[in-house]
Amino acid sequence: MAIQSEITVHKIAHPKGSKVDFGAEIRGADLENLSELDFAVIRRALYENSVVLLKNQQTLSPRAQFELTQRFDPVSTSYGHGKTIDAKRSVLHPDLKTIPHQPQVQVIGNGPVAEYEGLKNITLKHPHHKTFHADPLSEADDRDNTRFYRWHIDAALYGLHAPRVTTLMAVKVPKTEPLNLRYDDESNDEISVPRGSTAFASSYKTYDLLSEEDKQFARTTKVQYAPHPYIWMSPARSRSDGLGLVSEGKELPYSELPPIEKDKVKILPMTWKNPVTGQLALQVHPSAIEKLHLADGTVIDDLKEVREIVHRMQRPGIAPEFVYPIDWEEGDLAIFNNHGVLHSVTGSFLPEEVRIFRQCNLAASEGPLGPDN
Ligand SMILES: [Fe+2]
């Protein structure tokens, strides 16, 4: 008798007008007791759908969340950002609180929390775009409107390899009215998002939307990331669409960064291959880029030019019709392919609105799969 998994996979039904072709719900999985076959079904679903959602997982322990995350890369053991040195200057510093008994799992969210998983009397702060965007929304517009805070890959991009997947669990979700997310660029684009939604865009779609000439460029170009990128970028500010920084020369000079070890600087392919489907993703962390290495050996090191090239290639992929803003419900566990999507925080909360999420990702055991060319 063949042993079968009871897990089923259901494509997410996106609203009318959406052209999002990714996202699926996985049903019937017992995450604390996954057989090899069950995990194989989940892994395939993840790589075929980029983002998968499992409902009613509120009883899942931080340990089980870590173990699930680790199954995608069994050799990996440590958090995706490691123990970031000089963390106080990093733009990531205010957003994460580490669970003492499971240090690969971070608590993120908003508001005062008396006790959660061994963390006592903590105050969480939902990242607000006004701390990162060059030209934020006005105070008057801020409660009803929002921005993409920062489109990104979860990755240290210095020394450590980019985690394969991130798991994100919604523990406590304040439900309020949806927000109008404004791009505030020349497009007049806007999209309605649930407050505090995590927005996803498929980097496979972004690649597919390129011209043949740009696809060729993307397959043959490598991206060099700044050393200690989150410290390097800390004085700089973002475009209003959250997709990379404006070029005002504010990045820290190397002399003001922690010591730089040359072999830790990341020069990565511009396209990353899906290990299951073979599709290529245009996978670039737009805020952390510093140089482009072209096929003919040319290095583009003019930061403004580097950013213009990458923004022109990535912007079509975050158009409203291609963005999947998750409508979080308590107990939701999302797993996303961190080598195939960009994601962004959205929204804002009042100081007293309590929101608790748990995030886990692990520095990968090896670099991303590049294109075959
Ligand atoms: Fe993230």
From TrEMBL:
Superkingdom of this protein's organism: Eukaryota
Keywords, in A-Z order: Dioxygenase, Iron, Metal-binding, Oxidoreductase
Gene3D superfamilies registered for this protein in UniProt: Clavaminate synthase-like (3.60.130.10)
The TauD/TfdA-like domain, residue ranges: 21-360
Signal peptide: none
The protein's required cofactors: Fe(2+)
Family statement drawn from the similarity comment of this UniProt entry: Belongs to the TfdA dioxygenase family.
Protein name per UniProt: TauD/TfdA-like domain-containing protein
Organism whose genome encodes this protein: Neodothiora populina
